[in-house]
Hints:
Elements: E1 2-9, E2 28-31, E3 35-43, H1 48-51, E4 55-59, E5 66-71, E6 77-83, H2 92-97, H3 99-102, E7 108-123, E8 129-142, E9 145-157, H4 162-174, H5 185-190, H6 212-235, E10 239-241, E11 244-245, H7 246-263, H8 270-304, H9 314-339, H10 342-356, H11 368-385, H12 402-426, H13 428-463, H14 468-499, H15 502-505
Antiparallel strand pairs: 1-6, 1-9, 2-7, 3-4, 3-7, 4-5, 5-6, 7-8, 8-9, 10-11
Amino acid sequence: MVEEERKYEVEPGFTVPDLSGCLPDGGRLVQQPAVKLTATYYDTPDLRLARAGVSLRHRVGDSKPWTVKLPADAPGVRHEISRSGKRGKPPTELVWLVTAYSRGVELTPAATVRTVRTVLELRDADDALLVELADDAVSVLDGKTVRSRFREVEVELKAAKRSLLDRVEADLVAAGATAGGFTPKHVRALGAAAAGAAELPTVEDLPDGPTAADVVTRAVRDGVARILAHDPLVRLHAPVGDDDTAVHQMRVGCRRLRSDLRTFRALVDREWAGALRDELKWVAGVLGGARDAEVLRDRLRRTAGADPLAPLPLAAVELIDATLADRQAAALAEVDAALRSDRYVALVEMLVQAAREPRLTPAAAGPATEVLPRLVAKPWRRLAYGGSGVDGAADLTLDASDERWHAVRINGKKARYAVDAVAPVIGGGAAKLAKALSKVQNLLGEHQDAAVAADTWQGVLAEHPDDHELAVTVGRLVERERAAIRAARAEFAAAWERASAGQRTKWLP
């Protein structure tokens, strides 16, 4: 579940204003009786969770008393996951869920807060809950002794547009509430130690006139941040948008970071980067099975529905999907096992340390604009001209095998990642090349997805050789996939010509 809320600091004598003016026509305010809530927050001894904006708590009285809250993409927006369980022992599932932040260190009680909460509900004419305002009088406990007290107001968005939060906020601020911060109760309770810097450094903008070291450091931190931010969502098998998944994003993070370490290999310690790349390859491989199943199931739906005037037999399509669903479930089980392994916990530690201080060589001290272009030239040349039995992009023909096209795709991905890594510094032609390579890579990706899908549909048929309806359905699916392959090949030459134009590549030595 994703929650969006805003917090406000208020003085002890604060009075919640009349919010009836915020309601839509026919709406009403519903005052609930006060309740007492006692929550115990768990953390590592050095408060890694709190410093990262994460919490794991047990709250007496909740039907599911154990809750983890994880940061999302915007201030005030968090993922909230609740589970049942006995007091005093956090559920194993939730302990594993915060591995990217705890790095396997034992979680113990860190703070206990008692809250007297008075809830005001804003409901519409149909009695739907739009916004919930919680007026909290908080006591921080040390055993049975109250160590400190404070008061705050939380406003949580339910079935309403964000503009309603804005109207409520305006009234609260006018009444004396202080907006602008989002400090969780347990962080306030724990004090300065919990408000310190997170274990994982933030990804900051590059300085003016950056060195190659600045660029490498930012690339490493960006890759590590993407991997670890999606770790909990992968464990939850959660989407990250309407058309994306956490498995995809975490896998991309692994592959990009591996690619960046390869591109910048002259600037990083060889042994250090090699060990990190090996472990990233392992995780990306584990994620690959689950990602492949995601892609194939999505493609099956799109390919089967591509021609509404010629629908495919539903039962046959569902049989294929059921086969893929079984593969996906098995692949996700492998992902779960890998992410719960000691090997993965050790990798998380490696990633955090890499983000803090990448091991760079003296060559990284040079100006980025002088050092980086020659590092990108090698993957670019390999894409453009090929080598070791692999065609260059310009050599691909309409009748070349799927395998040859796939080999170019692999080189294309490496070149694109390399150009992406330096484009913010080089600008100009590099930025244009990055955009053009995105189009090239999209076509090569569509080609490969269609080729793999066609093979997969035929593989499912091989498991059911006597199913005539399935045979007809697979034949039509394969025909559509081959048409997609032909379309991608037909567009490729023009896309490559744009990408390889002189104004986009002249910055490369």
